[in-house]
Automatic annotation (TrEMBL):
This is allantoicase. It comes from the Eukaryota. It comes from Diutina rugosa (Yeast). Residues 27-175, 194-332 form the Allantoicase domain. InterPro entries: Allantoicase (IPR005164), Allantoicase_dom (IPR015908), Galactose-bd-like_sf (IPR008979). The lineage of its organism: Eukaryota, Fungi, Dikarya, Ascomycota, Saccharomycotina. One of its GO terms (biological process) is purine nucleobase metabolic process. Belongs to the allantoicase family. The keyword Ribosomal protein does not apply.
Length: 333
């Protein structure tokens, strides 16, 4: 059973609690497709909204920032196969965006998934989103029945019937990592290890979820940057659910590319809870990194002592600014 949500419902229920596991920023890949005559399938997993340029034409015709196939497909559907950027994930819901595709959008889509840790050669697919209608230049948000989401997958296939164009495709899921070995020190805030930014004060320029991405990024756009604050005693904050309960040994805050807009100070606290419904910035947090000055374009390391185990961390930027990455290293409980 598939449920359709509004944009606001999808943001609060899915985006804020799960990860886009095929996104380019987490390492997702387009492995193959049936056709991409007018526009490349790789555009589907790019971050951000699709760009429109009404004056731009290429040798095949009008330029589109999305995936567009030839007309008159003789097969049942065109398709794209994606490899997740994480080890595996339980699939919860998908977003299909046909932005700027008006007379050439995909009329219907379905989504399939497969689990194969050893190879990208997939021969058997399971339907996770039954065939559903789409329409011109809109966003569609589909969520699976929670009773069907227990299995973890490694690959996803998007099908559109019979042909047409889609601007962006996102598949959200609960990351199931393969390296949470007891005793090993790992970054449990990392998106690949199941870390999720579940709430924040502000993300005016770029989303807080970026701080959990792999690597140090390419520019300011793939970090977390807030609006300038003007009030007294202001701070911006983000709450991160760790991929596993963690005895934290070290926190790393990276301000890469933030050269004139890094926070004056940062502060990190942690908590252990099984009830996120009551979790807020005002909860009973334990400070693990006191107010500490930052700097431009650098990685800052803070050792953490103690045997306590935590499930969530709270990063504060004082009073505002931008952070590229947050790393929380420790041993899993």
């Amino acid at each position: 059973m598939v449920k359709t949500l509004s944009a606001e419902q999808f943001q609060s229920q899915i985006v804020n609690n799960y990860t886009n596991v095929i996104g380019k920023q987490v390492g997702g890949q387009v492995l193959s497709c049936s056709d991409e005559f007018f526009a490349e399938a790789a555009n589907l997993i790019k971050p951000g909204k699709a760009v429109q340029d009404l004056t731009k034409f290429v040798p095949t015709g009008k330029w589109f920032d999305g995936w567009e196939t030839r007309r008159h497909n003789t097969e049942e559907a065109d398709w794209v196969i994606f490899k997740m950027g994480v080890a595996s994930a339980q699939l919860i819901g998908v977003e299909v965006d046909t932005d700027n595709f008006k007379g050439n959008c995909a009329p219907e889509i379905s989504v399939e998934a497969a689990q194969n840790f050893d190879s990208d050669d997939i021969t058997e697919w399971e339907t996770v989103i039954d065939k559903v209608e789409c329409g011109p230049s809109q966003q569609f948000f589909f969520v699976r029945d929670q009773g069907l989401t227990d299995k973890n997958y490694t690959h996803v296939r998007l099908r559109m019937y019979p042909d047409g164009g889609i601007a962006r495709f996102r598949a959200y899921g609960k990351v199931v990592p393969t390296n949470l070995t007891k005793g090993a020190v790992i970054d449990t805030a990392a998106v690949g290890n199941g870390g999720v930014a579940i709430a924040c004060s502000d993300q005016h320029f770029s989303p807080a979820s970026n701080i959990l991405l792999p690597g140090r990024g390419v520019d300011m756009s793939d970090g977390w940057e807030t609006a300038r604050s003007r009030g007294a005693d202001h701070f911006d904050w983000v709450i991160v659910r760790l991929g596993a309960a963690t005895n934290i040994k070290k926190v790393v805050v990276d301000t890469a590319f933030f050269r004139g807009n890094f926070p004056q100070k940062i502060n990190v606290s942690a908590i252990s809870t099984s009830d996120e419904s009551t979790l807020s910035v005002k909860s009973d947090w334990t400070e693990i990194v006191p107010n500490s000055p930052t700097g431009a374009d650098k990685e800052l390391e803070y050792p953490v002592d103690g045997d306590a185990v935590y499930t969530h961390v709270l990063l504060k930027m004082i009073p505002d600014g931008g952070v590229k990455r947050l790393r929380v290293f420790g041993t899993t409980a």
